[in-house]
Amino acid sequence: MNQYLITAYDYTDDGALQRRMNVRPHHLDGVRELKAKNNYIVGASILNEEGNMIGSSMIVQFETEEELEAWKQREPYITQKIWESVDIKPVKVAQV
Question: How far is it, in rounded angstroms, from Cα 26 to Cα 77?
Fold first, then answer.
């Protein structure tokens, strides 16, 4: 499988954190679905100095680029305008 590091930062408007919290249950449902299909490796929230979520980091894996693109089309943090910037890089997770 092809593995990817996703680094995403949220919008910074006044309603950004509340919007994230409203959409978060749907995002986590999607993560559970990825995990059930063996596409999810690890993920974390990126926090600011106050401990508030301002972004996300995930490592996921997909058989094809088309599967990655299909995930992006349905990811709530993308479709609901939580993530303002999304950087996706191919990686290889070390097996130790």
Answer: 9
